[in-house]
Amino acid sequence: MTDHFAKRRYLINFDSRRLGQVFTDVLVIGAGVAGLRAAIEASSRGNVILITKDKIPDCNTAWAQGGVAAVTDSSDSVAAHVADTVQVGCGLGNESVIRIMAEEGPACIRELIEWGAKFDLENGAVALGMEGGHSARRIVHAAGDATGRELSRVLSARAAGAEHMRVFENCFVIDLVVVDGRCIAALTHHQKYGHQIIWARSTILASGGAGCVFRETTNAPSATADGHAIAFRAGAVLRDMEFVQFHPTALYLAGASRALISEAVRGEGAYLVDREGRRFMSAYHADAELAPRDVVSRAIVHHLEKTHATCAYLDVRHFGAGRFATRFPTIAALCRSFDIDVEHRLIPVRPAAHYMIGGVAVDADGRSSVQGLFACGEAAANGLHGANRLASNSLAEGLVFGRRVGRVAAEAAEANGGAVPHNLSFTAEASSRTELDLPDVRNSLRALCWRNLGIDRHGDRLAETLEIIQFWGRYVMDKVLEDRSAWETQNMLTVARCIAQSASARKESRGVHHRSDLPHTDDATMRCHLTLCRNESAVRLMQEPL
Predict the structure, then answer these.
(1) What tens digit of pLDDT does each residue of 300-331 get?
(2) Which of 51, 263, 276, 289 has the fewest CB atoms within 10 Å distance of its CB?
């Protein structure tokens, strides 16, 4: 039987001679912290086009609450930050990559301050918060719980002033063009100008995560796994796609979207309690509420099953008058909008999909397996997070590796010469199969992934999930579709298939990947990365040694 996920190379039919032609030295896909920082760095060496499928503020970066993990206090150390990250990574973290982040993170904070970032201060110095998994207070934050929005503001302003940069908002990247093993262009659809082809000497994928593959997520609606999918179709190797981090505390109210309640709330002393008001985390981990995210998420799910409840609660009633609203003004305003007075009432929460640890396999400089294609941030898997991400390392990663990858990609563009147009065309084989209702497929996929690829997995359910996704693929991946929502659905199906295939192959429990049928970690055979790569006939899954 044809594997339509392996067979499908491009989502649209095209003839490059009939498309609008755009040229640049470096193309950056994604306008979150990693993409903005990469574009700023690359623009100092050549011409850059920065693409985002919505507006710049409409991405996960602007939604980030907690802060940036960086060593800025003399009582802390780079070695401690490295050790904390290694420990939370459960044996799969790349220590040399981790050290780069820990060593270069403080300079990135100083750079942002020079560019006008307004971080919270305490006694004249940068205020530092505490979060789960950290051995010291090292979380730099802004406006209490609006750090991502401040980073987006500062980096956007810096990008706007860059002489050699153009920003294309409302521009959707449909696919990457690869010729003779080198990425040379991107097929795009601009809301105003329609289909275009952008020729680039280097391309940086900084397209963010895949949270919207799951029904319950803290992610922005734009996080539909597009970057992972286009890289996969282009032949790039994906790594560790089974590792999806679930945030323990998303606001849980019937009819409301799952808004994030930051890790920092527990770091500042909030209790996790059940509907009877009893704390329960100490029964699951010695660090109680400050345990790593995967531990807290599983503990909440287990306790809900045990007590037949629908949600747990955050208790901040002991904070004292005004303290919560001062430290977390955005969250306090959110709670007020739902008539929750946090000084007198509990905040209902439960886990939701939050961060994609797996992604395009890259080295420390962001180089992928496809020449000319780089990746950074949540779209990339460089070994920083291992099997579980330490809280607030994501914004630090975007800053450090965005800068690094921007520089390396620009240098590669200089060495690569001009982007030379090719006469290229593609026509998919016409399908005679029935067209499914795509909104139904999308909603059903998200429910399926939440149920079977969520916090607790089982081998039988994973096999069933692959079977269902493969069936949908026969009727969705065989079609040439012509709108953004349809392309997003095809991308979500593709990445869900990758997650399920990798989760089925990882026959153990490690970090955020927990299998109730295989609850123990197997270092003897599974202390490795799992990689996926497609050709025209099959999707290859392989073990990659550390």
Answers:
(1) 999 999 999 999 999 999 999 999 999 999 89
(2) 276
Pairing state between β 194-205 and 182-190:
antiparallel
Q: Phi/psi of residue 270, each to 5°?
A: -70, 150
Whether pTM > 0.85 for this model: the answer is yes
HSE-CB for 192 with a 13 A CA cutoff? 4
Contact 117, 126 (CB under 8 A): no
Are the C-beta atoms of 97 and 367 separated by less than 8 Å?
no
Q: Which residue has the tokens 């207070």?
A: 137
Please say if 110 is a catalytic residue: no
Q: How far is CA 82 from CA 99, 136, 264, 342, 524, in A?
A: 6, 12, 20, 35, 24
Beta strands in 266-311 (DSSP E): 271-273
How far is Cα 91 from Cα 511, in angstroms, rounded to an integer? 9
φ, ψ (nearest 5 deg) of residue 523: -70, -25
Q: Mind listing the pLDDT tens digit for each residue in 339-385? A: 999 999 999 999 999 999 999 999 999 999 999 999 999 999 999 99
Q: Which residues 6+ apart lie within 8 Å of 308 measured at CB?
A: none
Catalytic hit among 8, 138, 153, 293: 293
Confidence (pLDDT) at 398: 97
